[in-house]
Task: structure prediction
Amino acid sequence: MNGSRVSTATCLLLLAVLLTACQEPAAPPQPPVDENPEIDIIPEPDAGSEKPQLTVAISVDIAPYVMKNAKTGIEVDIATQALPGYQLNFIQMPYEKLQSAVAENQADVALGVQKFKDVEGIFYSEDFIDFVNSAITKKSAGLKIEKVADLADYKVLTWQDAYLELGPEFKKLFSPDSPNRKNYVEVADQSDQVKQFWDAKADVIVIDRSIFNAISQSTGHQLSEVEYHALFPETTYFKANFEEPDVRDAFNAGLKKLCQSGEYAKLLKKYNIDLPSTICDPKP
Result:
């Protein structure tokens, strides 16, 4: 009986040993897996953030210079192509406010301004766009206008601050202290200026020919119904002004490239602007 119990115990012990030996060793604990390791995350660059941003003051829509809320127009195209290294963000304002937009920290750049005097901290470009201004009347009115002084007898519609930009004789005739000022009306929106002329709210409109033609034709009026009177300097040139001189220099260099490549002439053709001379022509 004792021999039988020893044999059974021995068998049980051997069985336990065999079972232990057959078990696979447990795998060592593994560190937790980082599902989003930093080394594997390479953010895509934001294409827009690579270019410095510029706030650019530009006029309200005046076809063909500024159109579709400053999404297109020759001034928009010139600025964009002359400053390809910058992201331009256009803000629109009446012409009168463009002159002071940079000085009053409303913009980094203002397009379509004139340099009446030096302003500390404001840097002006070369001429970048030119306008051909005329006094325009309806043929049906039969008005004889051969010189600036003849305008004194008529109601005249023009743009803001025009009396400062059309030569000394026009300035004297319609300056704020002149008795003729009562017949002189400045309109902030040149689309409205053209509309008022066609609605016979004035005898004469003084305006850039390309602006008048584009707005008139878009509203169904015939250019054959009007007469153009060349009373003013052949071309009125406008500049851009800048807060930073290096941006101004880049703009001037860009304008030069547009002229040399022929792209400036292509833009004039694209927008149907016919000028006797352009900024690309050699200055006398």
